[in-house]
Structures are given as structure tokens and as C-alpha cells.
Amino acid sequence: MKKFLVALLTTVLVASMVACGGKNDVTTETTNAPAEEEIVSDGTLGQDLLVVFAEHLKANPEATTQELADAVITNEKILFSGGSMPVEPGFLMGFSADITGFEEAVSFMPMIGTIPFMGYVFSLAEGADVDAFIATLETNADPRWNICTEAEQTVIKAVGNKVFFLMCPKSLEG
User: Fold this and answer.
1) Residue 37 lies in a domain
2) At what angle do helices 45-59 and 65-73 cross, to 10 degrees?
3) With 0-12 CB in 10 A as exposed, 13-18 as middle and 19+ as buried, what is 82?
4) 57-73 as b/e, with b when 16 or more CB fall inside 10 Å?
5) Which residue range forms the structural domain that includes residue 45?
6) Burial status of residue 161 (CB atoms within 10 A of its CB: 0-12, 13-18, 19 or more)
7) What is the pLDDT of residues 69-87, one digit of tens each?
8) Assigned domain for 4 exists
9) 32-41, 87-96, 125-134, range with the lowest pLDDT
10) What is the DSSP-derived secondary structure letter of residue 62?
11) What is the pTM of this model?
12) Has residue 86 been placed in a domain?
């Protein structure tokens, strides 16, 4: 009987892993640009929200990371209840290693955990190596951080010393 139960549980475990193992085309767009550069969306959710971030920062150069994250998560393109909260350096959801090297950061995400959507706004010290920080984010981003879901798109963009990071589906419609 015990052998039967072990075999049954093993079969269920393997079946659930296979069911969750679908592979999406994950695209990563990483850029570092001056604050005055115009950012244009390609029509995907990640790029649309990057534009929201950049436009809010351009209109409010002294905006805090909290204000920038709130501008993104409350945008009309977000079709779920979302929220934001400050985070400390160290383990951050969506990454495979500790993320450090920022002065302050705020995460923004859905209140429902099964949506593959995870974002951050980071503020770096003046003179910090923004390119190295972006490389760390890109290297350690894990689009499959959420069980049975995978982000289709990762967008990372620095505007001055503020860094926008988002893993998300290309669209929330459907």
C-alpha cells in the first residue's frame, strides 16, 4: 500500500510540474537613457507602463520611488487590483539572487498572486554605476518566479538615477 501511495504521489507531482512547465517567448528590453530622451511604446503592456513611468518622472523630476510606482500600478492599463510597498536591499521577489546597490526601492504588483506581473522602481545614489545595476537585475531576473505562470516580457530602463524594472505579460486582455 505504501509503495502504491508513493507511486501515486510521484505521478501527481510529475504531472503538476509538466502542466506548469509551458515555455513562453520571454523578451528582455534593457536601456539606459538620458531623462530628456523620448520613450515610445511598442504596444506591449511593459512598454506602455514604461512610458507611464517616464512621463510621470519627466513631469515630476523630484518624484519619489513610491510616487512613481503608484503612478504605474494605478494606470488604466492595469486590469487588476494592485498595490505597492517599499522594499529593502536583499532578497526581492522575482530574482534568483539578492539585489543590493540601491538607496531606496518600491515594488508594485497585483493583489492576486497568480498574475505573472512584478515590478520595481529603484533609486540609485548620484554617480552610481547604473549600467552595472541594470546588468545585475537582468542577470538575476526570474520570469518564472510565480508558480505555474511566466512573465512574457521583462523591461528594464534607467532614467537618470531611477530604474524601472517590470516582468509581465505582453497584454492583460483576454
Assistant:
1) yes
2) 140
3) buried
4) beeeeebebbebbbbbb
5) 25-168
6) middle
7) 999 999 999 989 999 999 9
8) no
9) 32-41
10) T
11) 0.81
12) yes
